[in-house]
Amino acid sequence: MSGKEQSESLDEMLEMDLILKAKRGDMTAFEQLVYRYDKQVLSIAARYVQTAEDAKDVYQEVFLRVYRALPKFQMKSQFSTWLFRITTNVCLSHRSKTRRHTHASLDQESDTERGYSLSEKLSGGGATEQRAESSDLALHVQHAIDSLSPKQKMVFVLKYYQGYKIREIAAMLHLSEGTVKRYLFDATKRMRTELKDTFLT
Amino acid sequence: MTHQDYKDLIHLSFLQELSEDEQSVLEEHLRDCPECGAEAGELKHLHEVIGRHSGGDITDDLLFQARRELRVALRLERAKKTRWIDLLERFNIMSYPTVRVAFASAAMLVIGLGLGYLLFVPTTSVTSVGEAGSLQGADSQSGATKVSNLRFISQQTETGEVEFTFEMVTPIRMRGSVRDNVVQRVLAQALLNEQNPGARLQTVSTLGTQLQPAALQDHEIKRSLIRALKADPNVGVRREALLTLQKLPLDEEVKQAFLYVLRHETNPAMRIDVINSLEKPVLAGKMIDKDILDVLREKMQTDENNYVRARARNVYEEGQQR
Asked: Which chain B residue has its CA at the smallest distance from A166's CA?
């Protein structure tokens, strides 16, 4: 057994230990479990939803669902797969809430403003002259991503920005690998069309 | 392969999802096909544009805010649960003698109604088995019973008589104290036969946390735990069984199980745990068994893991000095 395999195996046992303790109501163990994955959860949420506030809502909803469902978690799948499945479900359902909200307030807030606030939160600073050009690109790309269907968008975010393998995405979303590929191809096609005039010429 | 197939491969290539063979097939095709070459060029440009957008990651500030808010939400969630528990406890405290009599009467009435219902409402599942082994009047709709593995042995077309075998499984819901002997027996059996590793893990964990060492000494439970430790395919179940068995005195049966794990377990952390258990007599100033010393000597020379070898040597040397 190589050193890497040994440390993975120890890590797996440590995680198993945390899950068992958290299942019995140990909050410290639950927090440690959260801290193992929460950056990835927040990152997926931030890529998927419109604003940093929405991303935090998704983050909180995901871990509250995990907290409630953990006593029933049967370890049939990896904890991470289960967690990211919950994350994708929350993102997909959150979108519809945002949509309702967006329809109600379209007059108050333009697409540009919404996209800008997200990219600003992601890069962690205010707009400067130097960032103007890249922000413009970011807005167009974000706009193109937002034009995808919810599932296409989820698959696209998980693949392009989180770097998951197609088989991992399929496990998270309960889809076949073929379906995930199809979503990716369709998403890429759509992105090409959306960005053609501005950046791909 | 068609051009469309190659275009799909180009997509997958940019997503780093191609095997080496597929990649070389694609590269060979791209050398001779201007149409697919143009597609590859466009996709490359698209990926560059999307890649440039990836920008920074989420900020630490955002992460800390999210964690802080989550902590508050979890506290509220727990308080919600506690309020229910408080309510139930108060319900108990409030049961003054008169109230208790009223509740007892109401409970008796409910039990009486329940018994009456059970006794006088005709049941649909009649399972009388005749002498010839045929099932008369069995209702296929009854309960949650599942019939499987149906095998026909014979059938008479003239009389319409058929003979067959089948397995009938009825799910049973059981509630009882884990200190109850029957519950313990069922759990011990489940540990050996349950397919779901999560259920096996929970079974070991329940036995380990709820039972005193004296109860764990029960032959059937101990045998099940030892079998789980030695042969369960899931490392989590094996580890939980080890943790539970560590609570027992190191008698011959447990010792042999630990030595088996030390020899055959593939997970080094488990082997280290076992060495730690075998060290206990040494730490208590007792003599260490010759069987244990033999296996420790073998492991300190041959184990593939440095730390296991070092721990085995350490305990072996301490054991020899006794």
From this structure: B17
Q: Where are the alpha helices (DSSP H) in B121-265?
A: 181-193, 197-210, 213-216, 219-231, 235-245, 252-264
Q: Is B278 exposed, middle or buried (0-12, 13-18, 19+ CB in 10 A)?
A: buried
* CATH 1.10.540.10 fits domain B181-321: no
Q: What is the domain extent for residue A34?
A: 1-109
Residue B253: DSSP 8-state: H
Examine the domain organization and report whether A97 and A153 are in the same domain: no
Write down the residue that tokens 């082994």 correspond to: B133
Pairwise CB contact (< 8 Å): A138 & B53: yes
Q: Which residues in chain A have Cβ-Cβ distances shorter than 8 Å to B42?
A: 192, 200
- Residues 6 or more apart whose CB falls under 8 angstroms from that of B221 comprise B184, B187, B188, B207, B211, B215
Rounded to two decimals, what is the model's pTM? 0.49
Using CB atoms, pick whichever of B63, B74, B205 lies closest to residue A67: B74
**Which of A53, A82, A109 is at the close of a domain?**
A109
Tens-place pLDDT, residues A67-102: 999 988 888 788 988 999 999 889 888 854 445 444
